[in-house]
Amino acid sequence: MTITGALVLFSVTWFMVFLCILPTRQVSQADAGEIVPGSARSAPVDPQIGRKAKLTTWITLVVWGLMCGVIMSEVISIRDTDYFGLLNYFSGLERGE
Hints:
single chain, mainly alpha
């Protein structure tokens, strides 16, 4: 795995985890009884974005570490997902066969 590949994997994983964590423990303005004029009733009172970003980073580090370990140890490789034999076909085309 290249450094660029590892960074892309980390950023994609971070955003996926962040979008899963974002709606947790959300108190809407309607639930709190503090509706700000001009805003939606379902808007959060205190979204706690910084806290959720830190939590996302810690969870992502664990998940990313596991994913990098699996990829680099080749426990699961791209060849394991080649159900139709297309990798062998395309590698033959590159060699002119």
